[in-house]
Amino acid sequence: MAIRKILKIGDETLRKHARPVTEVDRRTRQLLDDMAETMYAADGAGLAAPQVGILRRVVVIDVGEGLIELVNPEIVASEGEQHQAEGCLSVPGKRGVVARPAKVTVRALNRRGKPVEIVGEGFLATALCHEIDHLDGVLYVDKLIEELPEEDAK
Ligand code: NI
Fold it and tell me: Which family does it belong to (predicted)?
């Protein structure tokens, strides 16, 4: 495992669309392992592959309920609305409120290439939307409804 460098806002890679993973192989698992290690080392709740310069549809999330690894994730259902404070490892020192669905259902492949479906509510729903947005070059700062003062930033 290895900690990878996290790209910061202003890097054009963060604005590109990531391509689907065509085969979940050893390289994909290596990427997942590195991304999890990088996320934990940076004390983040989620990380998307474009943030480490890899334009593939891969994300890791841990909102305190264990590690979630998703390959080619897609939101297949969403309901409700919530406003949560978000931050992003690519936008250091800032936090802001974004409107997201209160609940989302996501289909993806796991690290063995098997289809999985997860349902996220509350902050997990927000994290799923935030990370999947990264795969399409979208940052939470594009969707801010309120910027929080710097002293509230982690
Ligand atoms: Ni982010």
Answer: Belongs to the polypeptide deformylase family.
Q: Annotated binding site, which residues?
A: 88, 130, 134
Residue among 98, 94, 79 nearest 138 (CA)? 98
pLDDT at 1: 75
Q: Is 67 helix (H, G, I), strand (E, B) or coil?
A: coil
**C-alpha angle with apex 78: 135 to 61, nearest 5 degrees?**
45
Average pLDDT value for residue range 50-66: 98
- Segment 81-139, tens digit of pLDDT: 999 999 999 999 999 999 999 999 999 999 999 999 999 999 999 999 999 999 999 99
Say if residues 45 and 65 touch (Cβ distance below 8 Å).
no
Contact (Cβ atoms closer than 8 angstroms) between residue 141 and residue 133:
no
Annotated catalytic sites, by residue?
A: 131
User: Where are the alpha helices (H) located in the chain, listed in sequence order?
Assistant: 26-41, 123-134
